[in-house]
Structure formats: structure tokens, C-alpha cells
Description:
This protein is an alpha+beta fold. It has helices spanning about 1-10, 20-70, 125-135, 145-160, 210-215, 235-260; strands spanning about 120, 170-175, 195-200, 220-225, 230. Strand 4 and strand 5 form a beta hairpin. The longest helix is centred in the first third of the chain and has 50 residues, at about 20-70. It starts with a helix and ends with a helix.
Amino acid sequence: xxxxxxxxxxxxxxxxxxxxxxxxxxxxxxxxxxxxxxxxxxxxxxxxxxxxxxxxxxxxxxxxxxxxxxxxxxxxxxxxxxxxxxxxxxxxxxxxxxxxxxxxxxxxxxxxxxxxxxxxxxxxxxxxxxxxxxxxxxxxxxxxxxxxxxxxxxxxxxxxxxxxxxxxxxxxxxxxxxxxxxxxxxxxxxxxxxxxxxxxxxxxxxxxxxxxxxxxxxxxxxxxxxxxxxxxxxxxxxxxxxxxxxxxxxxxxxxxxxxxx
Length: 261
């Protein structure tokens, strides 16, 4: 799932919706997916040639007709049904990176389906600096356009994004040690060496916080609160490794036990 989403964003325009209104929101991902499939088709033509591709198309069509006629051919499909249900390869973990992993709404509770929730966010001024830098340098927007976008999205940010960090197991918040008082005037993102990372374990966290280990193994780490550790920016990856390796092992062990039962 994740590599396909990455290709859709980088190669097929999924990062930015240029279509207007709610209908545009619906059409845009469909068109991006169609573009992805067309790219795949063109690569197949270049690799296999038109004759081989036609043979593949004919074989798939015949298989669909067989499944439709026979019914229940694939494992998991209902008797008499025409659905071909082919399971993908097994995997140890499914990793989702995005804005809505801990979202809870009136009819949707994504957070309830997650075994581990990790929040990673900069302080708000740094987040705006990063967005301004990315959208002006990589996407060709004027700073004024980016500022308007930030203001337009602020209600959604406050109502839908921010509350998710209260549902996570652990939060990592990057705090710059240089002046970011006016993020709209800055054009350079503070370096990792110019930042601290605040690591907070929420009260309901499913991750064990071994502060003694972290203070011993992470250079420059100190405890600022009963459930909070602060580490130098360059040590964030090391801290993550120490925190999440045991947690991921426990998840895989629990999965193995469930499969064996």
C-alpha cells in the first residue's frame, strides 16, 4: 500500500488537488489512480510488446468469465458468487503514515483499529516554516498563496488534526532552538542540530517508557516531566529505536500467538 501511495503522490499528482469543489475532491484521486494504471500499462507495452499484452488481457478476460460462470472459485468468495478474491502476500506490519491515523468522528473511528499510534509534529511555527519552504521551492507557489492556504485550513487543523495527538501512544515534537517568531519571514528550516525533540508518553500509552534505559543510552537526554523526555534533535532516531523495537516485538509475538491459537 505505502509504495503505491508514494508513487501516486510523486508521479501522478496526488499531492495537490487542482480540481474545484467537492466534486473535484472525489474526481482527483480517481484520475490519479487512472494515471498510475496508464503508466503501468505503457511500461508493460514497452517491456512485453503489444502481442504479449493482448494475450495477457485475453487471459484475464477468460478468467473473469470462468469465475463468473463457476462461482465461488477463489478462497473466501461466496458460493455462486462471481467475485475473484486473491489474497496478497503476508506481512509482519502495515505501516501507515498520514494525517488521519488517530481520527475519531461521528461515524468513523480509525484510531480503534491501530495497534500503535505515534505522533510526530513540529511546533506550529516550525510547521508553517516547513510548509512555506516546501510549497515555494518544490511546488512553485508564492508565499502569499501558501499563507492563504494555511489560514483557510486552520479550522480543519484545530478540529481534526490536533485532537489526534491526545489519542496517540507517544508523541515526538520538534522544538527549534533558534528564533522562529515570524515564520512567514523565514525561508530556511532550522537544522536538526538546532532543535530539541520532546518525547511524551500519553497516560493511556501502550508503550512501556523505560526512562532509565533512555537516559543511559541517548546522549544529552533529560527528563522534563514524569512522562516526558527531551533529546537533542540528532538523537531522535536513536530514541525511536529504543522505544519502539520492544513494542513492535510484542506486537509480532501477540500476532504469532493469535495465529497459533
